[in-house]
Design a protein that fits this description.
Helix content: over 70%
Structural class: mainly alpha
Order of helices and strands: HHHHHHH
């Protein structure tokens, strides 16, 4: 970050966009949880009520944590799992062709989340501060 802050700008933009989208999605699920549970039931997702609440909490909390750049890799992994399941359940017909796949928002979110999972967050983020302050000499420093 000291050498060139521009090199971290793409990750910052991805983090801002993804966090906004997941905050909106998680909040929206809480607004009509019965509809989400019904949708999960129709998709034959096991324990639809539990999973509906779990997804809503992870999306909302993950979006908030990504916005702060706090535990970016951890929340990116959880959200990537949700997007993978969404691709496999709601967009299964798009998996037959690459051109159909790249048109789905779930796939694009998954790609952005994988970027954050690999790169982490550096610019305007809590993670680097935590790493320097507390975790510099521990194995946990690789998680944030």
């Amino acid at each position: 970050m000291k050498k060139n802050w521009l090199q971290h700008t793409p990750e910052l933009l991805i983090r801002i966009i993804i966090s906004y989208l997941f905050i909106q999605s998680g909040y929206g699920k809480f607004q009509d949880m019965n509809a989400v549970i019904s949708y999960f039931t129709n998709l034959q997702i096991p324990w639809p009520a539990l999973n509906a609440y779990l997804v809503a909490v992870i999306e909302l909390m993950g979006g908030l944590f990504l916005a702060m750049g706090l535990f970016t890799r951890f929340w990116s992994l959880l959200l990537a799992v949700i997007m993978f399941v969404a691709l496999m359940t709601t967009q299964a017909d798009a998996l037959v062709s690459a051109s159909l796949l790249i048109e789905t928002s779930e796939f694009l979110y998954l790609v952005f989340l994988l970027v954050l999972l690999v790169k982490g967050s550096a610019l305007l983020s809590v993670d680097p501060w935590l790493r320097r302050k507390y975790l510099n000499k521990t194995c946990l420093s690789k998680m944030i």
